[in-house]
Amino acid sequence: MRKEQIRRALRSFAGPLMGVQIALGIFTIFKHFSLLPTYQESREYLEAGLALRFDEYTGVVYPLFLAGVSRLSFAHEWVYAALIQGIQLLCFYMVSFLFFGLWTGDKKKKAFLSGFLATIPGILLLHLSALPQSFQLSFCLLLITCMLYVFQKKAGWNKLVIPVVVIALVVSICNLTMQVPGSRGKMQKSVEAAMLQRFVWPHFGTNYFWWDQEVQAVMSQDEAITISRFENKVVDEFGPKMEQAYGEKEARRHYLAMTKSTITQRTKEVCLDILADARDYALIPYTEMQNLKGIGTSETGWNYRKWMEHSGLVERAYWWYGRAISLLLAVAGLISLIVAGKEVRRHTGLLLAAVFACFNFVIVVFRDNVPVDGRHAGMIMMFYGLIGLFTWKWTEDETYEESAH
Q1: Which distant-in-sequence residues (6+ apart) come within 8 Å of 111 by Cβ?
Q2: How confident is the model at residue 340 (pLDDT cuts 50, 70, 90)?
Q3: For residue 169, what are the CA distances in angstroms to 1, 134, 173, 180, 392?
Q4: Which domain holds residue 373?
Q5: Do 355 and 400 fall into the same domain?
Q6: 333 and 293: one domain?
């Protein structure tokens, strides 16, 4: 009896909150439709696609997508923006609809759940921007859906899984054959380069005299201090200079030596930086709320500024509201998980989403030491949404049980 009361209480609590977010999200879509945030990365992807010059930072598929849309828009900016936003929103919504088809057979309920997931503010920002994270998030959810179809032995699973596998293979082959590392003048990606960005930056200036003479010959101490202030200069300036002076293989050896030196000399600072990033990304909705109060170092203010370029009071309220209910619903979801007990084992989708979110978490924490940026934490934000939706799923299961009796 107590479990049933908790189910009903959580259901009555979660539904209205989700409905308000969907309404605010729909308003925001209409207000922002055909208006793209002006990210520098968006221009770089478009330029790479038009010039057919791809490296490991741009990939191949998304620049080609932007270039194709640009051709179709005939230089009309509003058409270009509308096509990008419409295609990205439609892709995510369709994949969400397919995913929630494993939760319920009711089309209205699938539409409601898909609408909630698509209108989580941090996720909606990706769909309304010319950034590859939107398609990446859709593809991750599609992979989870395919895995569930296979695990649950759904009828016709091969009709979904085989095309997805083929698409993944084609994309991988395109990336392997068409992108040329370093072709756009940036530091080539490698494990050592990632370690340099994660552990050495922003200690270029303070650790300058601990490094080899070959490294000091490439940049002066003043230049090292400047690099310490701007994280993009590692990729745009220091890395290319090292690779031009010594070759990519020898440069990687120096990156590794610099990393070891920094970890030895700055052990406490490095560990605290990693722990701070881990905390901030794990609690990304709360982190972004704190950032906008002036607490912590992040890219949240920059993203918020881009968001507010075409926004008003409603979108501002939506930004805050969405993050607040992500936390509230996540708490409700955790309560549901605890009360559900062994029933959780039946919800494989949530477990798979947790695995993908963990991968996202590890990547964003360890790939570099730049300020926290919610645009790269889409899978984590989606997991928050799915935890909140578990409240609905669990209480919906109870409805089915009652109707069965």
Answers
A1: 97
A2: low
A3: 51, 19, 6, 19, 36
A4: 2-182+283-404
A5: yes
A6: yes
**278 is a domain residue:** no
For 62-142, where are the E strands, in sequence order? none
Q: Where are the alpha helices (DSSP H) in 74-132?
A: 77-100, 107-118, 121-127
161 lies in the same domain as 295: yes
Query: Is it the case that residue 397 has pLDDT exceeding 60?
Result: no
Q: What is the pTM of this model?
A: 0.89
d(CA 125, CA 131): 10
- Token digits for 18? 């989700």
pLDDT at position 155? 74
Count how many domains the chain has.
Answer: 2
Asked if residues 45 and 62 have their Cβ atoms less than 8 Å apart, the reply is yes
Residues of the chain above pLDDT 70, percent: 92
Region for 187 from its dihedrals, namely left if φ exceeds 0, alpha if ψ lies in -120 to 50, beta otherwise:
beta
Residue 361 has pLDDT above 50, yes or no: yes
| Dihedral sign for Cα atoms in the order 220, 222, 228, 231 | negative
The secondary structure element, H or E, covering residue 176 is helix 157-178
Residues 128 and 60 in one domain: yes
**195 in the same domain as 152:** no
The pLDDT score that the predictor gives to residue 399 is 43
**Residue 263 confidence class, pLDDT cut points 50, 70, 90:** very high
- Best CA proximity match to 373, nearest among 381, 76, 62: 381
Q: Is residue 213 part of a domain?
A: yes
The structure tokens listed for 156 are 């016709």
Closest CA to 36 of 68, 83, 91, 75: 83
Query: Does residue 274 belong to any structural domain of this protein?
Result: no
- N-term to C-term CA, the chain: 16
Asked whether the predicted pLDDT for residue 41 surpasses 80, the reply is: yes
- Nearest alpha-carbon partner for 253 in 268, 238, 242: 242
The DSSP call for residue 219 is S
Six token digits for residue 364 = 């964003």
User: Are 259 and 294 part of one and the same domain?
Assistant: no
Query: Which CA distances in Å does 104 have to 98, 108, 110, 280, 397?
Result: 10, 10, 7, 34, 9
Residue with tokens 């989403």: 353
